[in-house]
Specification:
single chain, mainly alpha, 11 helices
Amino acid sequence: MAALFGDKYFWNASAKIVMDEFTRYLTEETHGQATIFGIFYVLLSMITVVGNALVIAAVWKDPLKILKTSPTNLILLSLAIADLNVGLFVIPGAASWYLRVGITETDPWHSQLIFLTLRQGFLTVSVGHVLFLTVDRYFALATPLKYRTKITRRTVVVVSSSIWICGISQAVVISILQQHFVITWLISIVVIFLFAETIYVLYLMILRHLMKHSKERIPLENSQSNVASLHQRERKVFRVIVSVVFAFDCCFTPWMATQALIYFCKPCHSHYNVLMVCYNVATVLMFANSALNPLVYSWRFSKFRATFKHFGGKFTQKGRRNKTARITVRSESLNTPL
């Protein structure tokens, strides 16, 4: 926090000092900014909850019996649960904080601490599952013959449970060591950064294996249609990987960059207002990752789309039956003799 507090309080800043500094900025500089961010967080919370609730319902109910059998879908289920908690607790906590600061210019300290601990815990769990899902895709595409022996339902349960335990433990440590908040928060940012870099490296390795596999297969194919099919599959996987990496990069790179500026950029203190605006925008993008995950990781799978269509069909049929029942009751009431 050198840009905000200077060298004197850099490593000794507690969670209360940090949050009081952000509150002071929003109350002294602009009330409108806090209110706008609060309203935006409310909308983002609703989108996050709806999208992840649909993923959880699809895997949990599994009406077509096509989702629970796949270990990958169990990872997506655990990821959706983490992101649903972000939408139910963390983002509304941010919305409440911004709205209270913007409207009443005050905010209880205990609510700030709860928001910080929940935020870091569920953020670590969410990014950890994205990393686990990337590892799953790496084995599925780069080493398909070994995939079923390495990624099993038992493996998914053990790794997902470990991710949840690590995320919750990290949140507990931050709450206990709140007087050394800067140190614990910096460690958590480094963990997120390492997760992100590992995700990027794994996707690059997936592309490398895919291109190598295509080069080996194309000379062996006698049919032009098979060669075209290989090229089409390569392009499709490439587009998917690029979209996944792009979405993750847009959500987390600005947040990690602003965190680095806040911690280590001393000259940034002269551009304090700009730094705070960038931090607030980057935090919104970081939370938006939980809303994008269902679209990026679940909706693109044909089995999920089929399940969602099944839910939509049942909802439509139920609505039609209710409408028909209302029409029947109305016609009977009109034909009833007085």
